[in-house]
């Protein structure tokens, strides 16, 4: 295969990854707490073919010679943590964080190992755990992390709501009681967050080894927590931008596909020469 075709094929492979990312953003435009993923491209290695040393130097700012690249690659996929709009739901267990870079925490059991993951989605539920007790979980059934671990309360309350500090407040026989508080953390290094599926984020082991958990995540005190009850944070996907990025990427993909076609035609012409 010619160098031209190899360059185009390499770039097309990376452009397909970008199209997949854009498609995932668009598919989650109505997913509460979803954060857009932005892609950035960078050039692969290039090869420098210099002119003969005896050639007269021209008044130019770039090195003499021809620089032949090897295509482009997807350099980074960053998570855009820009705040989404707040949508009122009126549901007692729906809550929205009003500060960017702050997260709820859930405990996920994967292959027998418990791991804390982070989310902006605050649509919580109560699951029965037996003996008249209920546990606060997210929409996928993962336990929500509180100040003292899992949040477990007694059932048969008259009323339940979550206040602006993240405290679960129940009413029983006219008496108000705080049952627990949802733990909120703030990411000092937002770019260290990576998608973990199910609208959750994790911190990579490499980042943990470099900075330690204390250099990435800070606990947010109740006084500094701003939670809106009866509401959810909407996705921050900008549909207009995603559609524009999709068309741009599709045009680039078509251009590289055309490059392979032209290279094939040129090879055919060369082989037909006698």
Automatic annotation (TrEMBL):
Residues 8-35 form the Flagellar basal body rod protein N-terminal domain. One of its GO terms (cellular component) is bacterial-type flagellum basal body. Residues 101-168 form the Flagellar hook protein FlgE/F/G-like D1 domain. GO terms for biological process: bacterial-type flagellum-dependent swarming motility. SUPFAM superfamilies: Flagellar hook protein flgE. Residues 229-273 form the Flagellar basal-body/hook protein C-terminal domain. Pfam families: Flg_bb_rod, Flg_bbr_C, LlgE_F_G_D1. Keywords: Bacterial flagellum, Cell projection, Cilium, Flagellum. Belongs to the flagella basal body rod proteins family. This is Flagellar basal-body rod protein FlgG. It comes from Gracilibacillus halotolerans. The lineage of its organism: Bacteria, Bacillati, Bacillota, Bacilli, Bacillales.
């Amino acid at each position: 295969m010619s160098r031209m075709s190899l360059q185009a094929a390499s770039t097309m492979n990376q452009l397909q990854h970008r199209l997949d990312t854009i498609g995932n953003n668009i598919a989650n435009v109505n997913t509460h707490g979803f954060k857009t993923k932005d892609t950035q491209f960078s050039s692969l290695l290039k090869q420098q073919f210099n002119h003969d040393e005896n050639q007269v130097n021209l008044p130019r700012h770039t090195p003499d010679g021809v620089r032949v690249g090897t295509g482009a690659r997807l350099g980074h996929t960053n998570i855009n943590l820009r705040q989404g709009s707040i949508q009122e739901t009126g549901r007692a267990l729906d809550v929205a964080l009003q500060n960017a870079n702050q997260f709820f925490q859930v405990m996920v059991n994967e292959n027998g190992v418990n791991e804390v993951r982070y989310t902006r989605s605050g649509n919580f539920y109560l699951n029965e755990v037996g003996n008249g007790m209920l546990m606060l979980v997210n929409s996928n059934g993962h336990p929500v992390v509180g100040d003292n671990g899992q949040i477990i309360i007694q059932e048969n309350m008259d009323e339940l709501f979550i206040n602006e500090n993240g405290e679960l407040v129940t009413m029983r026989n006219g008496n108000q009681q705080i049952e627990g508080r949802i733990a909120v953390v703030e990411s000092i290094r937002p770019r260290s967050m990576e998608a973990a599926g199910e609208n959750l984020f994790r911190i990579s082991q490499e980042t943990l080894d470099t900075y330690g958990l204390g250099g990435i995540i800070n606990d947010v005190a109740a006084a500094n927590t701003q939670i809106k009850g009866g509401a959810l944070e909407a996705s921050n996907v900008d549909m207009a931008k995603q559609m524009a990025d999709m068309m741009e990427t599709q045009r680039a993909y078509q251009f590289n596909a055309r490059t392979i076609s032209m290279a094939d035609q040129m090879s055919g012409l060369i082989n037909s020469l006698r």
